[in-house]
């Protein structure tokens, strides 16, 4: 039901991936969506009516912007079928298309018409009604935007983001600031403006995902303490608190999942 699609080479520096959730469901089914350190544009098809995400009622034939999240969000289905398409922007990637301070949109979901959006309402109707592949249609529109706008990406913060990912969230914030040639205060301010997160918050999310992949991997661990230490946590309670806060579930819930099952969206009965 959940699939991901890689962007073309032109968009790859700015977009992490396109994603699609499509299929039968049940009214009242709850989906937990962990934070990814990114922001998303979400499109609802004509059959995806009245889903609720963090109190926001997602209507058909609409697009929504979800800013950076620092905890898991909930989506509750109110129909028997859902079709949702998303564009997940890399940290700093959204600024290639629109200038907006992401630190003001943390944990917020907005109808795209509520702020200067990339996609017009006419484009959304065209997307929902067209027989063409919707991912291709969205990608074409974004490529058009890249050539239309000449805004530069923030190279210092983008580099810092890549360093945090490379170190799997286990980093020194002071050393990061030095590495990108900024004083600590300026580094933290710019990082939050362009990503929505403090460097520490973003590092916690990256560390969380590393822990989840370790929990789901085929690597043999004696106990959760081994996973915690490998992922950079102090002890098992520390791992437990972080996984619970960011996913709404305990580490044990991920141990029982098949290694090939995606954990970007987790669903439960209400």
TrEMBL record:
Gene Ontology MF term list: DNA-binding transcription factor activity; sequence-specific DNA binding
Keyword Ligase: no
Keyword set includes Membrane: no
Coiled coil: none
Entry keyword set: DNA-binding, Transcription, Transcription regulation
Domain of life from the UniProt record: Bacteria
PROSITE patterns: HTH_ARAC_FAMILY_2
Annotated ranges, domain HTH araC/xylS-type: 154-257
PANTHER family per UniProt: HTH-TYPE TRANSCRIPTIONAL ACTIVATOR RHAS, HTH-TYPE TRANSCRIPTIONAL ACTIVATOR RHAS-RELATED
Name of this protein: HTH araC/xylS-type domain-containing protein
């Amino acid at each position: 039901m959940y699939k991901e699609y890689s962007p073309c080479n032109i968009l790859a520096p700015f977009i992490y991936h396109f994603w699609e959730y499509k299929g039968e469901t049940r009214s009242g089914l709850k989906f937990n969506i962990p934070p990814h350190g990114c922001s998303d544009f979400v499109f609802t098809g004509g059959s995806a009516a009245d889903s609720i995400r963090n109190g926001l009622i997602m209507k058909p034939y609409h697009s929504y912007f979800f800013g950076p999240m620092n905890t898991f969000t909930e989506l509750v289905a109110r129909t028997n079928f859902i079709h949702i398409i998303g564009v997940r922007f890399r940290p700093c990637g959204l600024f290639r298309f629109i200038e907006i301070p992401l630190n003001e949109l943390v944990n917020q979901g907005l109808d795209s018409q509520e702020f200067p959006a990339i996609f017009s309402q006419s484009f959304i109707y065209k997307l929902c009604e067209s027989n063409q592949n919707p991912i291709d249609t969205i990608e074409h529109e974004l490529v058009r935007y890249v050539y239309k706008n000449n805004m530069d990406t923030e190279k210092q913060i983008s580099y810092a983001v890549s360093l945090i990912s490379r170190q799997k969230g286990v980093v020194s914030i002071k050393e990061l600031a030095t590495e990108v040639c900024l004083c600590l205060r300026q580094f933290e301010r710019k990082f939050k403006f362009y990503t929505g997160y403090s460097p520490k918050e973003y590092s916690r999310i990256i560390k969380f995902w590393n822990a989840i992949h370790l929990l789901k991997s085929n690597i043999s661990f004696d106990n959760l303490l081994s996973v915690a230490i490998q992922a950079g946590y102090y002890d098992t309670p520390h791992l437990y608190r972080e996984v619970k806060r960011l996913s709404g579930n305990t580490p044990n819930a991920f141990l029982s999942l098949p290694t090939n099952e995606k954990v970007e969206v987790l669903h439960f009965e209400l």
